[in-house]
Write a structure and sequence with these properties.
Pfam families: Methyltransf_12. Helix content is 30%, strand content 25%. It is built from 8 helices and 12 strands. A 7-stranded mixed β-sheet has the order 4-3-2-5-6-12-9, sandwiched between helices. It has a 3-stranded antiparallel β-sheet with strand order 1-7-8. It has a two-stranded antiparallel sheet with strand order 10-11. Helix 1 packs parallel to helix 4 and helix 6 crosses helix 8. The longest helix is centred in the first third of the chain and has 22 residues.
Length: 281
């Protein structure tokens, strides 16, 4: 399936995406393996991957006792995992059903978290307080049109000396044809201001379908992502690229230690993720 490149008003695109993400909630409640959180020591795979990296850049080498804001938290599995690591967490998302599911999971499993319903681009005006850490991970910035506005929210949420962490799908990965028999460029790496209009009733996990299949995403090269954070006044302290993903981007990907990767002979040809750690001085 090839998306259409379209001119669309941000609010209209946001509304369509919100409907789609609302529809995903019951599907993801079934597919995310939430029963595993009945074990009080269980952490999500994403947090088990991200936490050692994040904590290596913290003065205390731990999130325990720190105030953490998790942007685009969806149904809260990573937020609750951060709480289990000892953080005081606030989860932020624009989907009311997702936050309802997150709150129910937290209550059922004895986790403590604050949930705030707002668009990530309005986060500073909706979320109280300043944070030692702002965290976001996997499947985030492509849903946003304006990364300068996104980065400004992050900088404003952080306290002095606070740390921002993101791990996400690599823009080079998103330029590839997920259905091709070889690594083949199909989609633009650089954006031109237009959105990519997708019509896909499936989601990235589980077998169900959504009632609102139309979504809008924006390609953002690494230069734009890093540049937005720098323009917001943050200082880059770590950058890395990874060879695996926590979801199966392409049917050709193979499972590797619970994650997904290209076949062995292709793993050094293209990055799958990037990780950025930045600080507000």
């Amino acid at each position: 399936m090839t998306p259409r490149n379209v001119e669309i008003d941000w609010e209209a695109a946001r509304h369509a995406n919100q409907q789609n993400w609302n529809d995903r909630v019951p599907l993801h409640e079934d597919a995310y393996g939430l029963d595993a959180f009945d074990d009080p020591t269980h952490l999500s795979d994403v947090i088990r991957h991200d936490l050692p990296v994040l904590e290596s850049f913290l003065a205390s080498h731990s999130v325990s006792g720190l105030d953490v804001c998790h942007l685009q938290c969806h149904i809260g599995t990573d937020t609750i995992s951060l709480a289990r690591a000892g953080a005081t967490v606030t989860g932020v998302d624009f989907s009311r059903p997702a936050l309802r599911a997150a709150a129910e999971l937290a209550q059922r499993t004895g986790a403590t978290a604050t949930w705030v319903e707002t668009d990530v681009l309005e986060a500073r005006s909706a979320v109280k307080g300043e944070f030692d850490v702002v965290y976001t991970s996997i499947g985030t910035v492509t849903w946003l049109e304006d990364l300068d506005r996104w980065a400004a929210q992050i900088a404003a949420l952080l306290c002095r000396g606070g740390t921002f962490f993101i791990r996400d799908g690599h823009p080079s990965l998103y330029a590839l044809d997920e259905d091709a028999a070889t690594l083949t460029i199909r989609y633009p790496y650089f954006g031109d201001g237009r959105a990519q209009q997708w019509d896909d009733a499936a989601t990235y996990v589980g077998d169900g379908t959504v009632a609102h299949p139309r979504t809008f995403e924006w390609p953002h090269p690494l230069s734009e992502i890093i540049g937005a954070l720098l323009r917001a006044g943050l200082r880059l302290i770590h950058f890395d690229e990874g060879r695996t993903l926590p979801w199966q981007f392409s049917p050709r990907m193979v499972e590797v230690d619970g994650d997904w990767a290209w076949p062995e002979g292709e793993r050094n040809l293209v990055p799958c993720t990037y990780t950025i750690v930045a600080r507000r001085d």
